[in-house]
Specification:
With about 250 residues, the protein is mainly alpha-helical. Helices cover about 75% and strands about 0% of the residues. The longest helix has 25 residues, at about 165-190. The termini are far apart.
């Protein structure tokens, strides 16, 4: 009970709840975006490692109700190829995470989020077909970014969302892959002794609003109106990236 009380009385909890609800809504109707929304905001009140631990926990439980639909819409072979690459990149990313300065971490996360949005909004397209090797390489890059910044999505999202795949397939593939990466990364953190009790408890508390927000987002999702959900997702990601920049607290 003492640990629960510590989590409930944590100073940054209101901001974390706000961030996790936004992340859940985006994940529910777009299939991606939790880390892009949550991590920049969370890093303003907790350390980089804590931000990622908290996200591991709620992100393991939140997507579970959404997985059956994601499985029906997905291409499991592609998800498997991405996963193989992620297993290579993850340990390298975790190594650098444990050595990065918190302020540098926040600039990096916000910068990556904004860069991804700029590429998507510019209309850039990856023109070459995604063969097996290329798909696994994308997974490797994604795994590295998961380890260092809890951002496995950008590499995968850019490769999928700039392709001709149907929105439902993109959503299903990204949702299944991100769930897999969360589990593997959590186990790697565990084996390296990086997990701490308080952020684990905070993550458990956030799993409730995250799951509810994800279900609401899934109800909103309509493949016929994909231009709407993409624009909303982009706006929320951009807002989170800007709010998470260290420039706002330089005067403190």
């Amino acid at each position: 009970m003492e640990l629960v009380w510590q989590a409930l009385s944590f100073d940054g909890l209101p901001l974390l709840i706000f961030a996790v609800i936004l992340g859940g809504l985006v994940r529910g109707f777009a299939g991606f975006g939790t880390a892009l929304v949550f991590v920049p905001l969370a890093a303003t009140v907790v350390s980089p490692v804590w931000a990622i631990i908290i996200m591991f926990v709620f992100d393991l439980f939140g997507p579970i109700p959404l997985l059956p639909r994601a499985w029906r819409d997905s291409e499991p072979r592609d998800v498997g190829l991405l996963g193989i690459g992620a297993l290579i990149g993850l340990p390298c990313g975790i190594y650098f995470l444990t050595r990065i300065d918190p302020i540098a971490f926040r600039w990096m996360v916000s910068g990556l989020s904004i860069t991804m949005l700029a590429l998507l909004l510019s209309g850039w397209r990856y023109r070459n077909p995604l063969n097996d090797v290329m798909t696994s390489c994308i997974g490797c890059i994604s795994g590295f970014m998961m380890g260092i910044a809890a951002l496995p999505g950008p590499a995968v999202i850019l490769s999928y969302m700039t392709s001709a795949r149907r929105p439902a397939v993109i959503r299903g593939n990204t949702m299944l892959y991100l769930f897999f990466v969360d589990i593997v990364a959590f186990l790697m953190f565990l084996t390296k002794g990086l997990l701490a009790a308080l952020p684990l408890m905070i993550g458990l508390l956030l799993a409730v609003p995250y799951t509810i927000a994800g279900l609401v987002g899934a109800r909103i999702f309509n493949p016929e109106k994909e231009y709407i959900y993409r624009r909303v997702a982009y706006a929320l990601i951009a807002g989170s990236a800007i709010m998470g920049m260290p420039i706002w607290d330089m005067g403190h």
